[in-house]
Amino acid sequence: MHDPNAMPGQPLDLDDAARESAMLRWALTGASQDGDAASAIYGTILAASILIASAGSSAVVFLSVIGSGIVFWLAHAHVALVRRVVRSGEHIDRRKVRDTLVEEWPLVQSSLSPAAPLILAMLGIISEGLATEIGIGICFVGLVAWGLVVSRAARLSRRQATLTVGINVALGLILVIFKSLLH
Question: 126: which DSSP letter?
Answer without folding.
Answer: S
